Amino acid sequence: MEHEQILYENANGIARITLNRPDRLNSFTAQMHAELRDALARLREEGTARVLLLTGAGRGFCAGQDLSDRKVQPGSAPVDLGASIEENYKPLVLGLRALPMPVVCAVNGVAAGAGANIALACDIVIAAKSASFIQAFCKIGLIPDSGGTYFLPRALGTARAIGLAMLGDKLPADQAAEWGLIWKCVEDAELTSTADALLLQLAQAPTRGLAAIKRALYADNTLEGALDLERDLQRELGYSADYREGVAAFLNKRPPRFSGK
Ligand code: T3D
Predict the structure, then answer these.
(1) Residue-wise over 52-63: b if at least 16 C-beta within 10 A, else e?
(2) Ligand 1: which of 19, 20, 21, 25 to mutate, most ligand atoms within 8 Å of CB?
(3) Which atom of ligand 1 is nearest to the CA of 134?
(4) Where are the alpha helices (H) located in 78-169, listed in sequence order?
(5) Chain centroid, CA 59 distance in Å
(6) How confident is the model over 58-79, as pLDDT tens digits?
(7) Which of 28, 154, 145, 152 is nearest to 90 (CA)?
């Protein structure tokens, strides 16, 4: 599939997806969702990437659903938003979470509506100081979707989650980092270099181990369930080449060379 609304690259173990409709603040259309599904499928088929970066082109990260992508106005036929979520947003969130590699999100500007929550679906979120997160849904009579009702109370507690969801206030990136919603906020001029350093580090890391960390930390579990999952994942990782390499490197006092296998 040709991509017109996103950019996709995959080289040297690092894949990058850039939302690319800067004049509309990279808001989601049905076409962009189809291209994203195609890119995630291609990434899996290629089987060479060890980390994925998600970012936006221009001054915004993503303004959520493109509100002009279909006809919604008083008197027009109602739109089935449940179908849109089932077809587009849910597979995107689950697709990012299920990727067997870390997903870094570099939030280069405003992240509103589903744009904010797709960022939060990524594993490590870094944001430029001028970026912000806006749960804009309440301003058009909707609820936070794309995992917002799941991510926000877990990361922030109910008081902050409900305040953001009901008021739709802009949460500046530095406050998002202070509140523990994202990993880090950096100066605008340092976003690219910070992301690149992170990508390089993660592309050389033991990928299977990182994928297992995702599985374990995102599992909704009891203590006993968590202990069982840790046992099972640790058993699998104990058979990996990277585990053997890590131990050998430690004992030989040399840097490890992880293959991701
Ligand atoms: O399928 C479903 O519908 C269900 C799923 C829903 C998920 C959702 O995401 S619902 C929430 C949708 N998003 C919003 O409500 C956010 C709307 N946008 C804004 O509130 C503001 O644009 C921002 C706070 C994000 C940024 O404000 P600002 O002042 O920096 O920029 P701007 O001037 O508002 O936007 C720049 C342009 O992008 C502008 O176009 P223009 O005037 O230059 O021709 C604006 O209309 C356009 N734009 C921004 N967001 C959207 C958009 N166009 C369509 N849809 C948008 N979401």
Answers:
(1) bbbbbbbebbbb
(2) 25
(3) 24
(4) 81-84, 90-98, 114-120, 148-156, 158-167
(5) 19
(6) 999 999 999 999 888 888 888 9
(7) 145
